[in-house]
Each structure stands twice: as structure tokens, then as C-alpha cells.
Amino acid sequence: MNYILFDGAARNQLLPFTFTRPVADIRIGILTIREKWERFLNTTTSTITEDYLSHKWPMVEMEENVMINAAFLPTAELLEQVTNLQPGEAIFHEEDIVAFFAYEDQDVNFDACTSIELEGKPFRIEYTWDIFKLNGEAIAADFEQLTRDRKSAPISSTNQVIAPENVFLEEGAKMECAIINASEGPVYIGADAEVMEGSIVRGPFALCDHGTLKLGAKIYGPTTVGPHSKVGGEVNNSVIFGYSNKGHDGFLGNSVLGEWCNLGADTNTSNLKNNYAEVRLW
Fold first, then answer.
1. Local confidence band at 273 (pLDDT 50, 70, 90 cut-offs)
2. Which tens digits make up the pLDDT trace of 237-267?
3. What is the superkingdom listed in this entry's lineage (predicted)?
4. Residues near 202 by Cβ (< 8 Å), separated by ≥ 6?
5. What is the CATH classification number for the domain harbouring 154?
């Protein structure tokens, strides 16, 4: 079967990140949404997205296709429903389309489809803040997927580790003289990533491939540092997609940082207004 991930109604609510990528290529947890689906489906996917993005992310359509709303992250229950879709069937969650079967060039009439209600609790992102709000759950799910029936690379005795059974290092990862507390959630260190001396990490936490925690970094979970990113200072409940740097002292909290961003020394964000009012998103 050919699987295609489409942006869906959440695309505009996930701006500005979806200006430069399909919904499927948002990182939440350890993996992007596309990487999650491809691991669950054991096959590659393509994308229906904005025309100007389709040059980089083209759709590949075949005679028979299953279209999946990329705002819905894969679960075991959803996977079973998606892989068992038949012609003329569509999966809904309330009024939202989750997935549907489509022949090549077919103009699908959802009113004529056999409607199937999504089973189990949906795992979805609807707004930008969901990326960090749901990141702990996503890290735990990805950790289970990536480490099942595998053994971590050795953890150096120079580290102080609480709940080492919840810590996993990929081959090539380096971690020395760090304090790691994985009692509240897993800690994943990707291939060729480095946790420098003096770093203090409280899970859930993911440092993706080729990422770096600099000397003395203080990390509160749930936090994800994407591939080829460098982080120092203090970070709390944030997601960095990849190829971005917060390399010096300063605070980043309850935030999402896209790709190819750089926060200069002593950059600080605040998740609390001086008058204690609700924070509004512009």
C-alpha cells in the first residue's frame, strides 16, 4: 500500500513552522511525525502540502493509496485501523478526517464514504504549543519504539545516573561527568551526540544525532534537542527541531525553536508575565 501524509486543517494553526515544512516534518519527541509513521508502517511516505513546498516534498501517488492526516501521530490502535482501510472507507475523529482510502486521481466524496470512528485516545497536535505540551508523551513513545529489544551503548562510570534502565545511548554517543535523572522519564542520546562535562539532565529528554549539550548545561524535561543542534545554559520543556544553536548561558522555556536558528549569548525567554495574566500567542 502507498501511504501519503497530508497537512489537514491544523496546518494554519501550526504556523509559522509550517511556512517552511509540511506538518509531517514537525519534530515532537525524538522523531519527526513522518519518521514515526514510517517506522510504524515500515515503508516510506510522501506528502500533500502547499504548492510552493511540493517541489521539495512531492506527492507520490499510486493506483491505491491511503491518505493520513499528519496532525495525528501513530498509535498501535490507529495503525491497525489505517492498515485495514478498504475502498470507500474513511476514519474520523469527531468532525476531523484522520485517514481515508483513495484510488489514483480519485475525487473522494466523504459523504459517500463508510465512516469509521477513531478507536482509542487520539494523539494529535493542533496548535504550536502542543509541540512542547505533548513532548513528554512523544519522547516516551519514541523511546519505546527506538530501543525495543536493543541494548544501550555503555554508559561511562564517570556519570551519575538515576534509573539507568531508562537511559539509552546510541553508538558513537559520548557522555562524561554528567548527572542524569531518568526517574521521571527516559533520556535518549543519539548517534555521535555529546553530553559534555558538568551537564545536568532531568528526563524526559532527547538529544538527537550529532547534537551537543555544552559544558554545564541544565536541562529540565520534557525537552528535545534536534539533530546537529548545540545547547548550553538552562532549558525547560522546549523542542528544538534541528540545526539550531543556543550555545551559551541564558534561559529557554516552554518554547519551540525551528531549524537554522541561533540564540546569542544570554538570550532569555519568559513563560510568566509580570501581571500573572495569560500569555497570548500572536
1. confident
2. 999 999 999 999 999 999 999 999 999 999 9
3. Bacteria
4. 181, 184, 219, 220, 221
5. 2.160.10.10
Does residue 144 belong to any structural domain of this protein? yes
Strands 96-103 vs 89-93: parallel, antiparallel or unpaired? antiparallel
- The C-alpha cell of 28 is what? 515532537
Evaluate whether 209 touches 193 at the Cβ level (below 8 Å): yes
Count of H helices and E strands in the chain? 4, 23
Find how far residue 274's CA is from the centre of its chain: 31
Q: Decide the pairing of beta strands 64-69 and 96-103.
A: antiparallel
Report yes or no on 280 lying in a domain. no
Domain extent, residue 158, equals 132-259
Could you give the CA distance from residue 128 to residue 219 in angstroms, rounded to a whole number?
21
Given its phi and psi angles, is residue 242 left (phi above 0), alpha (psi -120 to 50 degrees) or beta? Answer: left
Nearest to 68 by CA among 41, 31, 104: 41
Q: What is the pTM of this model?
A: 0.94
Is-contact 282 265, C-beta < 8 A? no
Grid look-up 519527526 returns 32
Dig out the grid coordinates for 181 from the structure.
535523572
Cell of 273: 508575565
Band (pLDDT 50/70/90 cuts) for residue 282 is: low
Q: How many CB atoms lie within 10 A of CB 82?
A: 23
- Residues 83, 233: Cα–Cα separation, whole Å: 44
Does one domain contain both 121 and 160?
Answer: no
103, containing H or E segment: strand 96-103
Residue 70 sits in the same domain as residue 178: no
